Amino acid sequence: MQSQIDTMKTFRTTRVHLRTTTKARIVERFYKRLKPIMKTPTFFVIPDFPDDDLAELNYQRVRQALLGFQHRGRDVPLVELTLTQTDLGVEHEALSSNSAALRCLALDVRAIEKVKDRIKTALWPPWSIASADPAPEQMNQDFIRRRLKDFITVLGRPSLNGPQESETLQRRLLSLESHGMFFPKRGQKTKRVRTHSFDHGGGHFYRYRLAQNALWESELIPGALRTYLLSLFEDCPNHFFRAGPRISAVDWPLWPVPTRATGDLLPNLATKALQEPRFKGAHDNVEVYALENDRASLATEVPVWLEPGEIGKFAELFDNSQPLTGHIDLLRCSKGKIEVWDYKPKANRNPQAGTQVLLYAIALSLRLDLSLEGFRCGYFDTEEAFHFDPVEARLVGSK
Question: In 3D, which of 127, 343, 339, 341 has the Cα closest to residue 225?
Fold first, then answer.
């Protein structure tokens, strides 16, 4: 476990605490220097810490990632620019006692997400671990059940910050602003439902939708959940989703025993959504209709992930080298519980859908550092819905 903690330290970031107005002034000064030589400058500003080897390493990683950038068949030259705090007019708001300047890496291209993904990939390599994979005969139903129940028990505790939990789990926070300032930054949309399309592989885009009004209407929504859902627009590690195992593809001979939900809220929503479809896919119709007509529904196609280095010994259930990723169909917050739902046609014939939503809840619990006690899982179609509490789930399987 000590090696796991030492590895975590290599992902340390240099947090720069500045007022929003100061950040805006810095970005504006760099923009003015770049505008005469660029039509559409896209750039990343990084503090220069001469005595910090890791900060220099991160800068060189980003630099290498942006060198040779191509867009629509043409090479885009990388421009580097350094300005002192005096040049920027922020000498009285020092970034750090050992930082005298800021460095900028700029491209003349308006491919915001593509550039940002290059930077994220350079700064956030997947946190893998070196451990022996269990032998195939070990990955039987009993082994998976025991290991999964242990995982659920750890996540069912109040926080990952206690001494017992930290010996097993080590959540890694990913924030681009921890490293520098990216321009241009997308403004927050004022629409009731904000949409962002993620290119996460699989031959299609995942349309993450967030009901912004619902996010702030209830005081019962945990602050950590609000922060996470908003952060995905800027800080989702998209490269994690283009390699490695998917939660939806986990094929264990094991699943939680659900209870048939009383009431027909979600089946009725699904039925109405499909009676007058607005999109080609059933999932899009059901998800958007829920966001527009159910005040408890917060977001759809929510990206979640687990890095092997975050979950230690539990990584042997999946893959020790790549993150486990997935997208939650429908995320609700109701009666003090965060609800993780999957729209699953022929739900009563899909007991393994319970495994899928259980793993989604596990991933989200880790991302939020919230106890799994505060979650509920379920899956539904137009006829019925099934749900269970993950901490109390009884795991059964095929013989």
Answer: 339
Respond yes or no on whether the N-terminal peptide bond of residue 184 is cis (omega within 30° of 0).
Answer: yes
For residue 110, give the DSSP letter.
Answer: -
Can you list the alpha helix ranges (DSSP code H) found in the chain?
Answer: 2-9, 20-34, 53-66, 85-88, 112-123, 141-155, 163-166, 212-217, 223-235, 265-275, 282-293, 308-311, 353-368
pTM of the predicted protein model: 0.91
* CB contact set of 75 (below 8 Å; sequence gap of 6+): 68, 69
How high is the pLDDT of residue 9? 39
Burial class of 161 by CB neighbour count within 10 A (0 to 12, 13 to 18, 19+): exposed
CA distances (Å), origin 118, targets 25, 60, 99, 223: 25, 13, 25, 30
At 277-333, the pLDDT tens digits run: 999 999 999 999 999 999 999 999 999 999 999 998 899 898 778 999 999 999 999
pLDDT (tens digit per residue) in 19-28: 677 888 899 9
Q: How many CB atoms lie within 10 A of CB 114?
A: 15
> Please, are residues 72 and 119 in contact by the beta-carbon 8 Å criterion?
no
In which band, very low, low, confident or very high, does the pLDDT at 108 lie, cut at 50, 70 and 90? very high
List all residues 6 or more positions away from 319 whose beta carbon is below 8 Å from its beta carbon: 244, 245, 308
C-beta atoms surrounding 359 within 10 Å? 26
Closest CA relative to residue 69, chosen from 33, 132, 112, 102: 112
Taking the C-alpha atoms of residue 88 and residue 76, their distance in angstroms, rounded to an integer, is: 26
DSSP label of 124: -
Q: Which of 368, 395, 349, 356 is nearest to 298 (CA)?
A: 368
Token representation of residue 335 = 């009666």
Least confident of 61-75, 138-152, 321-335: 138-152
Nearest to residue 306, comparing CAs of 364, 223, 243, 267? 364
Q: Locate tokens 């350079």: which residue? A: 122
